[in-house]
UniProtKB/TrEMBL annotation:
Name of the protein described by the UniProt record: Cobalamin biosynthesis protein
Species this protein is from: Actinomadura rubrisoli
Domain CobE/GbiG C-terminal, first and last residues per copy: 4-125
GO biological process, one term: cobalamin biosynthetic process
Gene3D superfamilies reported for this sequence: CobE/GbiG C-terminal domain
Superkingdom of origin organism: Bacteria
Higher taxonomy: Bacteria, Bacillati, Actinomycetota, Actinomycetes, Streptosporangiales
Record-linked InterPro entries: CbiG_hydrolase, CobE/GbiG_C, CobE/GbiG_C_sf
Length: 149
């Protein structure tokens, strides 16, 4: 079975419904069912936002968060200087998806590059061949009830 990680970024004013709809849209674009999703990944600051937690929880997805300085080191195809100026990283969605997928498979690949809604972004990374560690080895898994599984 194809397994993926969805990276999510959100601006203030985003709703859980908007983020959930964007997650659904990128999964549809990839031709995948929600069961293919291993986790949703984002930046530390965004994981604490109620709407990001709610969108992950509503989809039944674990939520993994990474420090912005870690995401800033991930090479992405669509860096945004405006995002870097606001957050400290040129990518949240693509960088989080790739970074979370790496320890799960070792050779992640973006199968859906960054897509935007009015106040959110999402990207889908294929996990690739099996790897030795889970996403928790590099990030912070949120406890149950906070978007984690």
């Amino acid at each position: 079975m194809t397994e993926v990680v969805i990276g999510v970024g959100a601006s203030s004013g985003a709703s859980a419904a908007e983020i959930g709809a964007l997650i659904g849209a990128v999964l549809e674009e990839a031709g995948l069912a929600p069961e293919a999703v291993r986790c949703v990944a984002t930046a530390d600051g965004r994981a604490g936002e109620r709407v990001v937690r709610a969108a992950a929880r509503d989809g039944g997805f674990p939520l993994i968060a990474y420090p912005v300085d870690v995401l800033a080191q991930v090479e992405v195809p669509n860096p945004a200087e405006a995002t870097r100026a606001r957050t400290g990283t040129a990518s949240v969605a693509e960088a989080a998806a790739l970074h979370a997928a790496r320890p799960l498979g070792g050779a992640p690949e973006l199968i859906v590059q960054k897509r935007r809604s009015a106040r959110a972004t999402a990207a889908v990374a294929w996990i690739g061949p099996p790897g030795p560690d889970g996403p928790e080895s590099l990030g912070k898994s949120l406890p149950k009830g906070h978007g984690g599984a």
